[in-house]
């Protein structure tokens, strides 16, 4: 079955640690996105990538980093510079990016700082 | 800048009653429009999307939305609410460009009372 897989589903991080959230898709989509979800704030775009080896900052990129070495993978690293990382993180993909095509979402990763 | 506004962060209806979730967008050019549903601790699932082929769009689970350019609105409706419709609903707009970024509203939590 085609889809987007995020792992892990739950992640706990100690303060000062970097953690990496995995996102893999087998939909052959060119574009991939990372969103952060906080209660009452909807979804906010962290980073997006339209093609392999290229990515752009979204609205809240500070404290995060990404890579796009393969078409099917778009991992997100939450660095120690992110002041308030506790949130629900959603990965999405779509193709082609510029047309009326919807984004498909993974099941999310809930990150908690302990 | 494009934005989307969902009026009402919480909507409560009785089972069998009409569901109306409001969404207004700001754009000089009609964007691509989407409604997504999210169940607790899950990703987003597409309900429907505006394709410009018809102003009244039918989606899954009995939902539909009407695009009204004069009102810059894309409200979501369902004639008769079911308990299983209780979830969070997001309206989203997508620029007609090559980035494919989705801009989300704040979300509306739908409560269905027995």
Please summarize what this structure is.
The complex is a heterodimer of chains A (about 110) and B (about 110). Helix content of chain A is about 0%, strand content about 50%. Chain A has strands at about 5, 10-15, 20-25, 30-35, 45-50, 55, 65, 75-80, 85-95, 105, 110-114.
What structural category arises from helix and sheet content of chain B?
mainly beta
Return the string of H and E elements of chain B.
EEEEEEEEEEE
Helix content of chain A: under 10%
List segments of chain B where confidence is low: pLDDT < 50 over at least 5 consecutive residues: none
**Helix content class of chain B:** under 10%
N-to-C span of chain A? 35 Å
Averaged pLDDT of chain A, please? 92
Describe the structure.
The complex is a heterodimer of chains A (114) and B (114). Chain A is mostly beta strands and 114 residues long. Chain A is 0% helix and 49% strand. Chain A has strands at 4-7, 10-13, 19-25, 31-37, 43-51, 54-57, 64-66, 76-78, 87-94, 104-105, 109-113. In chain A, the strands form 2 sheets. In chain A, strands 2, 4, 5, 6, 9, 10 and 11 form a 7-stranded mixed beta sheet that branches. In chain A, strands 1-3-8-7 form a 4-stranded antiparallel beta sheet, with no helix packed on it. With 114 residues, chain B is mainly β. In chain B, 0% of the residues lie in helices and 55% in strands. In chain B, the strands form 2 sheets. In chain B, strands 2, 4, 5, 9, 10 and 11 form a 6-stranded mixed beta sheet that branches. A 5-stranded antiparallel beta sheet of chain B has the order 1-3-8-7-6, with no helix packed on it. In chain B, β6 and β7 (64-68) form a beta hairpin. Chain B is globular and about 45 Å long. The model of chain B has no long low-confidence stretch (mean pLDDT 90).
What labels would you give this structure?
heterodimer; A: 114 residues; 7-stranded mixed beta sheet; 4-stranded antiparallel beta sheet; 0% helix; B: 114 residues; 6-stranded mixed beta sheet; 5-stranded antiparallel beta sheet
């Amino acid at each position: 079955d085609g889809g987007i897989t995020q792992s892990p589903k739950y992640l706990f991080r100690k303060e000062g640690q970097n953690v990496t959230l995995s996102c893999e898709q087998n939909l052959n989509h060119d574009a991939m996105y990372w969103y952060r979800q906080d209660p009452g704030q909807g979804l906010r775009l962290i980073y997006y990538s339209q093609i392999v080896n290229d990515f752009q900052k979204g609205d809240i990129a500070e404290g995060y980093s990404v890579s796009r070495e393969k078409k099917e993978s778009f991992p997100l690293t939450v660095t120690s510079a992110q002041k308030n990382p506790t949130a629900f993180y959603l990965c999405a993909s779509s193709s082609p990016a510029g047309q009326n095509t919807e984004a498909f979402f993974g099941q999310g990763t809930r990150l908690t700082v302990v | 800048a494009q934005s989307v506004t969902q009026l009402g962060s919480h909507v409560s209806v009785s089972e069998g009653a009409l569901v109306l979730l409001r969404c207004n967008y700001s754009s000089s050019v009609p964007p691509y429009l989407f409604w997504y549903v999210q169940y607790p601790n899950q990703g987003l699932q597409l309900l429907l999307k505006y394709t410009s082929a018809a102003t009244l769009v039918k989606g899954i689970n009995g939902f539909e939305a009407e695009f009204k350019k004069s009102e810059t609105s894309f409200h979501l409706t369902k004639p008769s609410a079911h308990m299983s419709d209780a979830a969070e609903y997001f309206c989203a707009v997508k620029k007609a460009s090559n980035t494919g970024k989705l801009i989300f509203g704040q979300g509306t939590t739908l409560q269905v009372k027995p």
